[in-house]
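Entry:
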Amino acid sequence: RGNFIGYNYVLGDLKNQWKTQVDGSIKWKGKSMNATANTGFAGMKNVYWFENGAWSQQNNSIYNGFTVGLDYQAKFFNWFNVGAKAMYSSAEWMPDLFGRLRLSAGGKILKNKKLYGQFGVEGSYSTAYNLIAFSPMFESYRYEQGLGVSRARLNAHVFGALEIQTFRFFFRVENLGTLFNEKTIEVMNGYVIAPIHFRIGITWDFFN
């Protein structure tokens, strides 16, 4: 699929920051299903970090990771949809294993078949990984030992939508994993897992 090699210019006495990324994928498309196998490598060196009013640097190759994954999407009986993703990573700042499964059903409702509905559920699981620190002001990251570990966790979302002609109503309930995970689990250093979110909305198309 492509690759990327780049670096940032020197800030004062700091060395150049390097990032190397190589990705590849193979896609297969059938009549009612799609599958994609992908792999990649990412490496970073001399990463910048801003703290206490000054720039510093992690002077080593602190991030080198190889990933391989599979995405799968299929439709059965013309109304039932399945989406799955599985990924393995060798980087210690990413889960060794991550998996996601999405199931949804949609089709015409009522006798006149003018009302369309879709409802589904999505679940995911990730293993533990080492935490990184994040500076939102400069969008910089710090990779080092001792920042803690994000424990393995499950998560789930439910969603649905109704549509009739040009009117659509939708809802989504996110992060149900808060109900059965410890609320103190961090996803990055100092950032705990997100709480339950409710999203509700409508859309309407106007035509001349």
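Residues 70 and 78 are 23 Å apart (CA to CA).
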